[in-house]
Amino acid sequence: MRKSRLASVQQHYVRAREVQGEVLCLWSPLSPTKRTYRTILEISPINFLLKAEEEQVALLERYGALLKALTFPIQIFVRNQPLDLRPYLEHIQEQADVFRLTRGREEAGKQDTALWPELASDLETLLKRLGSQHTLLTRTCYLVIPAPESFGPAPHHALWRKKQRHLREEALCFRALQELAVRVETLEQQLQSLGLLARRLHGPDLARFYQSCLTPLRVQDHSLSNEHLRVVGRLPRVRYSQASDFVSENDASETGSPEAEDGIDTGTMGTSHAFIVSPDAQDNSPASDASRTQLRRLRKRRPRHSRTYQTKRDRVKKTGTLLALPSPDVFHLADLLAPGSIQEFPDAVCIGGGINGEEEWVRGIAVTAFPREVSMNGWLAPLLLHDDVLDVVFHLHPQDNARVLRQLKNRRAGYASTRAFNRRYGRLDEPEMEVAASDVQRIMSRLASGEERLFEVSLLVVVRASDRHTLDERSERVASLLHTVFLDAVAHRTTFEHGQALRSALPECRDELSRTFPLDTSSLKTAFPFVSNALAMPGGVLLGATDSGELVLLDPWNPSLENPHCLLCGVTGSGKSTTAKLWIERALLVSGLTGERIWVIDPDAEYLRLARAMGGSVVRIAPGSPQRLNPFDLVPPGYDQDTYLKAVSHGDHLAEKIRDLRRLLNVMLADKGTTLSVRERALLDRALYETYRRVGVSPDPRTHYHQPPLLRDLSDVLKSGVCGPDECDLVLRLSQYIEGSLSGLFSGPTNIDLTSHLLVWDIREMGKEFFPIGIFLIADCIWTQAMYQANVRRALYIDEAATLIEHAEGGAFLADLSRRARKRYLRLVTMTQNPERFVENEHGAVVAANAATKILKRQDLTSVQAVANRLGLTHGEAERLRVLAPNEALALCGDRRVLLTSQISPRELALMTTNPVELAELSQHPQQALYAKAEEEMR
User: Fold this and answer.
1) Same domain, 574 and 653
2) CA separation for the pair 641, 649 (Å, rounded)
3) 13, 33, 396, 861: least CB-packed within 10 angstroms?
4) Distance CA 624, CA 622 (A)
5) Predicted local distance difference test score (pLDDT) of residue 436
6) In the predicted model, is pLDDT for residue 249 greater than 90?
7) Residue-number span of the structural domain to which 445 is assigned
8) Per the domain annotation, does 288 fall within a domain?
9) CA-CA distance, 889 to 281, in Å (whole number)?
10) What pLDDT digit, counting tens, does each position of 199-211 carry?
């Protein structure tokens, strides 16, 4: 009686064999090359539901055109996978530890204790609480494109020699890859017309994606590394000191092998039974040469990949030494990808036997039809945006129109004969048959005219969980969701076919389940699959979460964005400043002390508590303040002379500085809404050059390290008349800054430490009249640093930026800064509570257009229309802006739009609130009341 053998996981489930660049090679037993090829595109989904109705219709029309152009099957994945935040939180805790060690609690602040470590712990607690309330997900979309199958009759046996077979396989492979490249390029162009960004998975990413489709829960802890993938397809080398060390695995287990004592791994990988050591090990000993000779002889005598063992007695000759080894096997990709075991049950599949014995349960739900009528475009979005772990898999098989027309003609003839039979015997026609006959007639006419194409569609929902109980719960939630989208009557569990369902959900473009139903392009395009409201960027800052449980992680420096700038606008009381503070605090938690340097221009002293809590510095720009800021500085403080000379070797830095000083003086000396005359600007230009000349500074960069002049020196030059008579009373207008209330600010050289990771500029006491001057001075100071220290990432937050653009030169400077800052590693965040004035201004519109990220808070009737027109918002988005809560916002980031809700911990709320009632409670009952309110908002 023969002993039964278990089926092989690699043979029945894992068909991936190699990864070659952007191509995944699969095993195909019917192909002459035994290989077939796939390319996988990662698609950036869009928020379809936030688009205007006209945009939705246009998008569906272009998607329908893409479907009609298809001549080959494709597979579409929409994957909802749990978001692994452990690396993110570990990085934040590391930065908190660095802060604790480098600064210390006593040195972090003199008035308040720095709360950096506590805020990091609060963020971790907040994310864990969010994870307990909702399943935190990451949603991705993929498109699998197959190469054409290379079948054909085999040549005559006499010609089927090794060389001819090899040449034929190479030709078939080359032709298949050529056609695959054409298919991929065509689809990329069509996806681009839809506004969808597509990225080809390459190399290790392909193998990891395949593994995540097979065992997603296992991948979170044991993902394939590059070291694992580098050994695929290579023969392991066995290193021994002498021939007597050659023992089989069984012999080693019995006698205690020296390999185990020396730490050599003698385990097995997949189905390969060989001693596994590093494939990069080199051994040139005579014993190694003898072993390789014996291995070559053994391979000649035995079939390749033989996994049987010879006994020790058979491998001993008269000399008593071992001269042969079991034939080693190369490392296969399938062995790395395959789990330890897969068990098929009638109602589920259990993937187990992995590291630490974890199990994964999988259940398939097949949808066998679409509803006859749908109420809106994107009707399948509730399923695609479901806040649970599942995969939605589409298999689209385009049909040949000629063959379909023949089938429809036969069906039409059948309906006609049935009607004739009913009339002959006086029977009434069935209503269902009449509807079906009209549908057939309509489809035939549209197929014949080329307006439609017919597809055989397979829609599969794959539910995953770590145990059977959780699997049942998730399956019930999916069943309720399918009832919402009118698919409950046509959705069926794949009982006794869950193995086929799992294989159909692998990125192989193989539909083994074959639960298909016919659809034309007009019906199929309504189920637009590339839908998401996620905005999660690697290494981004947590700003909030969407309604479907997806975190909004924003990285302004992400390469997908045109620039890192941001516009943050909202009316008074909309939560604008709280959002800005939250962004600053969490950006520092992520980047740390040595990451991004943040400057904040604070006109209302709202950021002082945050600066002290994060160990930052506060600069008070006000009458009587001992801190000085000299606008005539040419060289950033602490800048190395040789590096500076190299940076300014091209161009005239002095001329650029004088141009910026003219803009500053225009803001300081001209009336609001006006500019200096041509005569005044010409006089100032000559006087500025003379002022620098008197201190020994010339266009030669080697003179720029001389002590820079002060504003008083410019006044003395104008009084002397060496540059011409002061007929415009410029000296008189300058006197208020030299002898008046603001004289202290310009009376000496710069004495401010500009190297802090968080620097808050308090300009509250300057008064609203002088706010534009303070903003201009600080922005020019950071621009001077960024010009010649472009290797340091910086961010400038300008609150109440609308006051600067009210001055023509101030607005021009801000617009020019928004255009040039990106090249100097500087990002600009402009905030305003008068968005209608800002976006309708000539220079403000430039700043808004150059901001790739826009965070819009609640608007009122006077501002919502102006903002909607300038930023291209839909009617629904504009209406939503009017009713946003203080912790909600509409984020526009590149081509993506999401509605987010900010989640704030109690400690963060205590630091960031500006509500006078809450501030009063904080002064009377330190933080208890605010903690209670924050807890209530989080619930």
Assistant:
1) no
2) 12
3) 861
4) 6
5) 82
6) no
7) 365-524
8) yes
9) 57
10) 999 988 999 999 9
689: pLDDT strictly greater than 90: yes
Q: Judge contact between 838 and 800, C-beta under 8 A.
A: no
Q: How many CB atoms lie within 10 A of CB 808?
A: 19
Give the Cα separation of 460 and 447 in Å (integer).
Answer: 27
Compute the C-alpha angle 718/723/727, nearest 5°.
Answer: 60
Instruction: Say if residues 527 and 521 touch (Cβ distance below 8 Å).
Output: no
Residues 600, 605, 610, 613: is their CA dihedral positive or negative? positive
Q: For tokens 């909802």, what's the residue?
A: 80
The answer to whether residues 26 and 16 touch, using CB atoms and an 8 Å cutoff, is: yes
Q: Which residues lie below 8 Å from residue 364, measured CB to CB, with a gap of 6+?
A: 460, 461, 462, 463, 493, 494, 497, 498, 501, 502, 504, 505, 513
Are the CB atoms for 687 and 711 separated by under 8 Å?
no
Instruction: State the amino acid at position 501 in one-letter form.
Output: A
Using pLDDT thresholds of 50, 70 and 90, give the confidence band for residue 330. Answer: low
Residues 596-643 pLDDT 10s: 999 999 988 889 989 988 988 999 888 778 888 888 988 876 676 777
- Rounded to whole angstroms, what are the CA distances from 30 to 27, 49, 152? 9, 44, 10
Q: Is 42 helix (H, G, I), strand (E, B) or coil?
A: strand
Q: How many residues does the chain have?
A: 939
- Boundary-marking domain end, from 702, 723, 751: 751
Torsion of CA 776, 779, 782, 787, to 10 degrees: -90
Element (H, E) at 551: strand 551-554
Task: Tell me the pLDDT band of 431, cut-offs 50, 70 and 90.
Answer: confident
Is the CA virtual torsion 48, 51, 53, 57 positive or negative?
negative
Listed in sequence order, the residues at least 6 apart from 893 whose beta carbon sits closer than 8 Å to its beta carbon are 535, 554, 561, 852, 853, 854
pLDDT tens digits, one per residue of 825-858: 899 999 998 888 888 888 889 999 999 999 999 9
User: Residue 458: what pLDDT?
Assistant: 95
* Other CB atoms within 10 A of residue 393 CB: 27
- φ and ψ at 185, to 5 degrees? -65, -40
Is residue 88's pLDDT more than 70?
yes
Q: How would residue 498 be classed by pLDDT, with cut points 50, 70 and 90?
A: very high
Specify the pairing of strand 758-762 against strand 597-602. parallel
| pLDDT greater than 80 at residue 938 | no
Q: Are 847 and 830 in contact (CB under 8 A)?
A: yes
- 349 in a structural domain: no
Residues 738 and 785 in one domain: no
CA separation for the pair 838, 860 (Å, rounded): 15
Judgement on whether residues 103 and 161 belong to the same structural domain of the protein: yes
Which amino acid does the sequence have at 579? T
Distance CA 383, CA 80 (A): 11
CATH number at residue 876: 3.40.50.300
Q: How many CB atoms lie within 10 A of CB 169?
A: 16
Question: What is the C-alpha to C-alpha distance for residues 498 and 626, in angstroms, rounded to an integer?
Answer: 76
Do 204 and 194 lie in one domain? The reply is yes
- The reply to whether 170 and 312 lie within a common domain is no
**What local confidence, expressed as pLDDT, does residue 925 receive?**
56
CA gap 7, 12 in Å, rounded:
7
pLDDT, position 185: 94
**446 and 492 share one domain:** yes
Sequence-distant (6+) residues with CB within 8 A of 88 are none
Name the token pair of 898: 């999401």
The single-letter code of the amino acid at 852 is A
CATH number for 668: 1.10.8
